[in-house]
Amino acid sequence: MAENRKIQEIPKRISGAILNSLAAGVVPRTGLEYIAIGRTHEIAAMLGDLETVESGGSAFRLISGRYGSGKSFLIQLIRAHAMERGFAVADADLSPERRLAGSKGQGLATYRELLRNLSTRAAPDGGALAVILTRWISRIQLSLAKEHGFAPGSPELADAVELAIMEAINGLEVMVHGFDFAAAVRAFYRGAVSGDEDLRQAALRWLRGEFATKTEARACLPVSGIIEDSSWYDYLKLVGALLVAAGHKGFIILIDETVNLYKITQSVSREANYEKLLNIFNDATQGKLSHMAFVFGATPQCVEDRRRGLYSYEALRSRLSGSRFAQAGILDLSEPVIKLQPLTPEEILALLKRILYIHAKHYDWDPGVTDEQIAALVQNLAGRMGADILLTPREVVRDFTGLLNILRQNPTESFDSLAEKLDIKAEAPSGEDTGGEQFAEFEL
């Protein structure tokens, strides 16, 4: 099978990361392509967004799905696709400390997290800002040295490079807060070319929003302000423009756990965050952004609850509710909201078989589990709980991986005997946390 031949080539560090993440019930940060099953139409739609961004446009998507339905997996899969195609990507999870708007550093905390997780194909694990700037400067130096015959380290080359950088970021200065941003980029170059590590690090700190006061920043850099709660989004747009100038096809921002905005108890604060989300939506859909895309992940109740959810903010509801013709299973993936449908039993079966194959290869053992046994397990679970609850993959995948771990460490046990011990317990947690929907836990 072509998929199995592909898995045969998977590095052990990646297969180990996949299995450890799945056993813990979290989405792997690497190797997602080896376990990607289903979501064909959703992935195609978002890859189309990447093409739009590459051509100079912008995009906005909100992925809506129940807990464990695959929102985070899809977001991380798009992250991997984007980096492979030459985009810069930043991702962050919202939390009580990280929001879109706040008065106590919550918005700035989101900006810092995004910059901390900034990744590219050359730096896939985050912290890519210094790498991007250094490589960009090196390319400019090499190009000018070849074109004009400047000697490495000569004052002529240094002056020419600074001029080229100023020309490249000239457009940034006309953007909001662009003058300070450009000054910080120039300071990074001057620190790098002169060997002044303190100046270089100060520029990075400023770009990452790590200065606490304007006085502290002015003591280190020729700037008049710092990145704050009220301005972080403007600076994020400047980061996007810088990344494109540095040679990337665009900037993809991935923000998960939007449900934390729904959980804000104070209506004024909650609406301020919805207002910021509306600003981002308007900028992305009205052509005010270039080479940028925003992708948010949220639960259905976070989106559709008209009392506290995004739909409680009328301007968002009118933009996100979509066409009234897209009902009863009719998909319209041109809408800003992608509503994740449950995986089919066939897709769950294919996913578990893929995990079995990866597990066997990683640990170099023969589980002795047949396709028929896995199919019987899926059928049994579907029959006992109903497909709509079964087919949220997180718990199924987590416990199937755990079952294989137990089976490998206890050779006297059999797959069938362990599978029979699966106790499926339906719970109805608070609506605030799950959107008021039941979900299943599969426990040994």
Q: What brief labels describe this structure?
A:
444 residues, alpha/beta, Rossmann fold, 3 domains, 5-stranded parallel beta sheet, 21 helices, 9% strand, globular, disordered C terminus
Helix content: 40-55%
From the 3D structure, determine the CATH topology of the largest domain.
Rossmann fold
Q: Give a short account of the largest sheet.
A: 5 strands, parallel
Write the element-wise H/E pattern from the N-terminal end onward. HHHEHEHHHHHHHEHHEHHEHHHHHEHE
| Strand content bin | 5-15%
**Please, how many helices?**
21
The assembly state of the depicted protein chains is single chain
Radius of gyration: 24 Å
Strand order of the largest sheet: 2-3-4-1-5
Q: Could you name the CATH class of the largest domain?
A: Alpha Beta
- Rounded to the nearest angstrom, the distance between the terminal CA atoms is 31 Å
Low-confidence stretches: 424-444
* Morphology: globular
Structure description:
The model is unreliable at 424-444 (pLDDT under 50). The longest helix is centred in the first third of the chain and has 20 residues, at 129-148. The chain is built from 21 helices and seven strands. By secondary structure, the chain is α/β, with parallel strands linked by helices. The chain has three domains: 39-120 and 248-339, Rossmann fold (3-Layer(aba) Sandwich), CATH 3.40.50; 129-218, no CATH class; 345-443, no CATH class.
Brief characterization of the structure:
The chain is of the alpha/beta class.
